[in-house]
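User: My collaborator sent over this chain with a note saying "see what the structure looks like." That's all I know about it. Can you take a look?
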Amino acid sequence: MQKTYTGRYVNIPLLAQEINNLFLSEGWESQVMQLTTPMMMQPGMPQYYDYEIRAMKKGHLHHVENVIVRIRGYPNEFSIIVEEEHIGALGRELINHRLFGTIDKQITDGMYDMPLPMQQQPMPTPQQPMSQPMAQTAGVRCPQCGYQNPPGAKFCLNCGTKLF
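Assistant: Without extra context I'll predict from the sequence alone. Here is the result:
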């Protein structure tokens, strides 16, 4: 199964962590792996992401269900690809309802949106006066990758690590 999303500017590391948390909350063993390393970007160019979530659940008689969820692309255009092996009825419900139902709705509703980079933000029209500049405040530095996040960020915009 695959679904492609466009028209939003999504925090992909946060989305990958939320999908992993979904599996963990349902009793699956799950982990997130970042398959690409963050690269130095040119100003105005979005970061390319490639995450893989591997989830496994052992059932009766040593029956093992495996799901691999791959999220790859740019914040404004990415795909979620699901590969599965030996999935039973409960695993199918988790994928169809929770992953492609709940997560899809949350993406559509903007739950994982992040601000557009300055180069991609629309210029104000004559009917929209420019707002007053805000005072610069210190952001939150990520303990994992060192990225300087905006004030009040709960997750790193670069790697998805939870911020304190």
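A starting point for your reply to your collaborator: The radius of gyration is 18 Å.
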